[in-house]
Amino acid sequence: MRTVFLILFVLFGLGACNVPQKDKGTSGMKSGLMSEQWRPQIHFTPKAQWMNDPNGMVYHDGEYHLFYQYHPNSNVWGPMHWGHAISEDLIHWEHLPIGLYPDSLGTIFSGSAVADVDNTSGFGKNGKTPLVAVYTNHSHEKESEGRIDYQTQSIAYSLDNGRTWTKYEKNPVLDNPGIRDFRDPKVRWHEPTQKWIMTLAVKDRVSFYSSPDLKEWTFESSFAQDEEHNGVVECPDLFPLNYNGQEKWVLFISLNPGFLHGGSGTKYYIGEFDGKEFIPDDPNAPTHWFDYGKDNYAGVTWSNIPEEDGRTLFIGWMSNWQYATVVPTEQWRSAMTLPRSLELVEGAGGKPVLKGEVVNTIENIAGDWQEKSDLPVAAAEAGTLEFSFEEDAAYQLSLEFDIQMDATATIDLYNEAGDSIFITLDKNRELVVFDRIDSGETTFNENFPGKYDAPVAFEGPVKVDLYVDQSSVEMFINGGKVQMTNLVFPETLLTGVEIYGSGDSQLITAKARVLNSIWK
């Protein structure tokens, strides 16, 4: 039997005087750069034009560098450059001039950057540590001639903390052996072998190369996925994480198409790496998707994070190639996810799973929590938490449920225009379902509206954290053991919250807080 609706929160914008109603209203269009309708307020976006994959992510001298695939002359994909931004806290971002421009070898596709602290490349001068970018040159000229060797790997270096770059005069440093898809180098230092390791996307697999100096590269091995797919591998990453006192290696593979819910997505493998070969712990393990939402792709990790920090930090492109070029924004297209800290933790059956949580510097923009506890989902009456915030803000909603067998709990986020998303926790099916069918503007592509599920282990109370921005909802279940990132395009921010369910469910704790705009 379905329980009575519970109106839990009413999140007021400044000047609002009414509880959001679930009937159609007028659009809350905003004006001004960085405050347009649907412009994310807590996520990185370019000021204008097209952006996709995060690139060149390196920490150096107190700054997190974020380069990204960028087309400065259009809001759709085109000749790729590396856009550039920096941050001191991974939350507030400063836009910098374009880092890398196309050249005679081609446009600048995805890649990575490292701090060559031992100057193995010889690029360092006067004691300055060189930042070295390793990227793919894509020759559209060769491609138009019908050749398949149009992607090669090149390097560039910077001695002024990434503000200006010098391309290596002997580029490319890795020629194409005759493979159509040969791109997206992710480079890291491997201490045991005292070599740089490049993880490269090569058609339907990843290949590993090694180098003593970032200039001369030697093929070591390849790793092919065990399951059949019709997609192309892109933007791989390889990094170590501690698990129960042992070092494990995690291999990211972004796949397009081939994602569980259609389009592009990222899977991961856990195993061993000896500087030459990656061997998964369980070759027959079911597919591990990093994020079960539709809109987290091509994500990779930052390099050169100080040892005393100890975190492995991630950011992804918040879109899907099924519809990325037609989402209903005009001044800009695409945002990055919130940065996340990654860990290996024990999952179902005692096996390790990859957990991702929003970085703790989110506190820099967070208001005070408003909280209520011990609220049965079946309550006929419930308290309301009210607080004010500016219209162009975002918020975090944190809920903890006790859901018994044969019970469900549904979270409905809505606005005064009648737009809604529904998030349902279903213990019998051991699933969470995210429904954005009626979330606002969905008609721009048939693959956008839909319901998407993820497996959830209902082992005790279930915690749900939601980060709700102007055009996205990022969900973390049980501390990030399950992640779902989805775009939404409501007329106005989804500030109404209702919770209802069936069966025996208890809302143990409910909290909400404002997340203020990073652009102010």
What can you see in these coordinates?
This protein has 520 residues and is mainly β. The chain folds into two domains: 6-27 and 362-515, Sandwich (Jelly Rolls); 51-333, Tachylectin-2, Chain A (5 Propeller). It has one helix and 35 strands. It has one helix at 140-144, and strands spanning 6-13, 49-60, 63-71, 81-87, 94-100, 107-115, 131-138, 151-158, 166-167, 182-190, 195-202, 205-211, 218-224, 232-243, 246-256, 265-273, 278-280, 288-289, 297-301, 312-317, 332-333, 340-346, 352-358, 370-376, 385-389, 394-403, 408-414, 420-426, 431-435, 451-455, 462-469, 472-477, 482-487, 496-502, 505-515. The strands form seven sheets. It has a seven-stranded mixed beta sheet with strand order 25-1-34-27-28-29-30, with no helix packed on it. Strands 24-35-26-31-32-33 form a six-stranded antiparallel beta sheet, with no helix packed on it. Strands 5-4-3-2-21 form a five-stranded mixed beta sheet, with no helix packed on it. β31 (462-469) and β32 (472-477) form a beta hairpin. It is globular, with a radius of gyration of 23 Å. The model is unreliable at 1-8 and 13-31 (pLDDT under 50).
